[in-house]
TrEMBL record:
GO molecular function: serine-type endopeptidase activity
Organism (species): uncultured Rubrobacteraceae bacterium
Name of this protein: Probable dipeptidyl anminopeptidase
One Pfam assignment: Peptidase_S9
Gene Ontology biological process terms from the UniProt entry: proteolysis
Family matches, as SUPFAM superfamilies: alpha/beta-Hydrolases (SSF53474), Tricorn protease N-terminal domain (SSF69304)
Length: 610
């Protein structure tokens, strides 16, 4: 199979994200991208009694699952325009697929988060950085209850600053659980307010710089939460009536990433990471007894217990695209709830497995990454974004395409990545962006060279968002013997420009990572901005940007292009007018991936000019 046909086959695999189970546990809804111009929402019964239903089919923008309605008869979805992230809420009924009933107004000038329908069918709950009186976008989020009959907006909570990620209405519709970060950018506390906006109060606070996440039990009277505790995360239960906290799991030896209660009740699902792989468990909230989910090779996250026994799970690894499955308790082949294999033309036997690869950084810190081996035409380091995220053993069409073009690919989990414990994740804040996490990446490249896998002068770096920033850092700070080329995608170039141009709710994250605002720590923002080192670029540079990106805005490209011009530095520029933060549309990926491969191939040519 030639590389063009292989790329078509890779991109025929839909990318699944955001699965949500209905309140009664009978259905699961998710978003799939790459089946059309943008992501769309599908749903399927968990018992596998019928094939998936396509609930949306649009070209306007990516459509994501927000929540199920309390009756389980419809799904609330959000949709933006060309990746601008300014989402509008719709309702789509299972009985009437393809019909998107608008719930919020067109052309929003704000960023909306969450979206749940009250049991009375009239009220809608979400957060947005919107001032209801003036209709203007503001810096801080408000928690709103919208009346669908008359359009009235009631502000249930008004933090003075910061964002309200993922507000959650309880099943009875009496209270809303939400998080605030107005005490310190590094922290997060849990608050509770009733549906009339009364009794707004903080219920979970384990320190101004500690993060707490929480969600409802189906009974609507208990809250499951995960709290940072210095060296690890603890899982506990808070009772609405008495206000008591009861700990379910408090083990410094466990790396807990998240925990939740399925919508239809039962065991608490604890999602941990061990050896850079998912290790989920099922925890009885009454007895504390813990059990393992069905044994399936790869990464498995239980979502909800299915009627008649068994679990609906999310499953994936590098050679198995993300799917929703029901494992066979008897050890037989799992059943796909999505019918994924029937939708993709890819021969998975050709896919390369991820190899666990480790090294030590400049200060002796152990760092892990995933290595995908090929014929050795060169090596590409693909840096994950975030940085509060991590590279997984997970199907990635870009990686498999680059491997098919002859490149080794390394995806490093530098300090600051999730999945390796809270101290490792928080260690990036000791230096701030552009600190030792970039040395972690550099040492990974050197380890590949020492192992005879990579060759000097034949290594390139790419990545999106913070991965793009890391690509900028590499090309401005490493020698060409170490990094010959970089292709930053939607990467920050001037951290001061980026701070003021990005979404308001993202600024506290920059403050947390950098130790303050640009006004409070100006030297750090200046020193860690790649734009101030472009004069040192000696390798090849390809800049990639989505022009609708509200996160790392095109202003980052505008200012760096001028700086490159002033310093006489050659570069290539590839922009996409219909993309936001990252390149996602299939026709654009058919342009981007070959362009990246050709760019690195040319940069690694042995007879290239100095």
């Amino acid at each position: 199979m030639d590389t063009d046909r292989y790329l078509d086959a890779l991109l025929s695999v839909p990318v699944l994200f955001g699965p949500e189970v209905s309140p009664d546990g009978s259905w699961v809804a998710w978003s799939w991208s790459r089946l059309g111009p943008a992501a769309d929402v599908f749903a399927a019964p968990i018992d596998g009694s019928s094939p998936p239903v396509r609930l949306t089919q649009t070209s306007e923008g990516d459509t994501m699952v927000a929540s199920w309605t309390p009756s389980g008869e419809a799904v609330l979805v959000t949709q933006d325009t060309d990746g601008d992230e300014r989402e509008r809420l719709y309702r789509v009924r299972l009985a009437n697929p393809g019909v998107m009933e608008p719930l919020t107004g067109p052309g929003p000038n704000y960023y909306l988060r969450g979206g749940q329908l009250h049991p009375n069918g009239r009220w809608l709950v979400y957060s947005a950085n919107l001032d209801a009186e003036s209709g203007e976008e503001i810096e801080a989020d408000r928690l709103y209850r919208q009346d669908l009959e008359n359009g009235e907006l009631l502000a249930l909570a008004r933090p003075e600053k910061g964002s309200i990620p993922g507000p959650e209405l309880n099943g009875p519709g009496t209270h809303v659980l939400y998080r605030r970060n107005d005490l310190d950018p590094a922290g997060q506390q849990v608050w509770l307010v009733d549906i009339e906006g009364r009794g707004d109060r903080e219920i979970l606070n384990f320190g101004t710089r500690a993060k707490v996440s929480a969600s409802w039990f189906p009974d609507g009277r208990r809250v499951l939460f995960v709290a940072e505790a210095g060296s690890h995360r603890r899982v506990g239960v808070w009772d609405v009536d008495g206000g008591e906290v009861r700990w379910l799991l408090d083990d410094p030896g466990r790396n807990v990433e998240q925990a939740f209660v399925p919508p239809n009740g039962g065991s608490v699902v604890v999602v941990g990471v061990e050896g850079a792989g998912i290790r989920a468990s099922l925890l009885d909230p009454e007895t504390g007894a813990e059990s393992a989910p069905p044994p399936v090779p790869g990464n498995l996250v239980p979502l909800a217990r299915a009627a008649g026994g068994g679990w609906a799970c999310k499953h994936y690894d590098a050679r198995h695209p993300v799917d929703l499955i029901r494992p066979d308790p008897e050890g037989g082949a799992p059943v796909s709830l999505t019918g994924l294999r029937d939708r993709a033309s890819l021969d998975t036997d050709r896919l390369v497995a991820a190899e666990d690869f480790g090294w030590r950084s400049v200060d002796g810190l152990e760092v892990q990454g995933w290595l995908y081996r090929s014929s050795g035409a060169g090596t590409i380091v693909l840096v994950h974004g975030g940085p509060t995220s991590h590279a997984e053993d997970r199907f990635n069409a870009e990686i498999h395409y680059l491997v098919s073009r002859g490149f080794h690919v390394l995806t490093p989990n530098y300090r600051g990545s999730t999945g390796f414990g809270l101290p490792f994740q928080d260690s990036i804040k000791e230096d701030g962006w552009g600190g030792r996490e970039q040395e972690d990446i550099r040492c990974g490249i050197e380890a590949l060279i020492d192992a005879g896998i990579a060759q000097p002068g034949r290594v390139g770096v790419t990545g999106t968002s913070y991965g793009g920033y890391s690509a900028w850092w590499a090309i401005t700070h490493y020698t060409t013997d170490l990094v010959a080329a970089a292709a930053p995608v939607c990467g920050m170039t001037d951290l001061v420009v980026d701070y003021h141009a990005t979404r308001p709710d993202l600024r506290p994250y920059s403050e947390e990572m950098m130790g303050g605002t640009p006004e409070e720590v100006p030297d750090r923002y200046r020193e860690r901005s790649p734009i101030n080192s472009v004069k040192d670029i000696r390798g090849r540079l390809l800049i990639v940007q989505g022009m609708q990106d509200p996160n790392v805005t095109p202003e980052n490209v505008d200012v760096v292009v001028k700086a490159l011009g002033r310093n006489g530095i050659h570069y290539d520029l590839l922009t996409f007018e219909d993309e936001g933060h990252g390149i996602a549309r299939p026709w654009n990926l058919k342009v981007l991936y070959p362009r990246l491969a050709n760019f690195f191939e040319s940069a690694f040519a042995r007879d290239r000019p100095a």
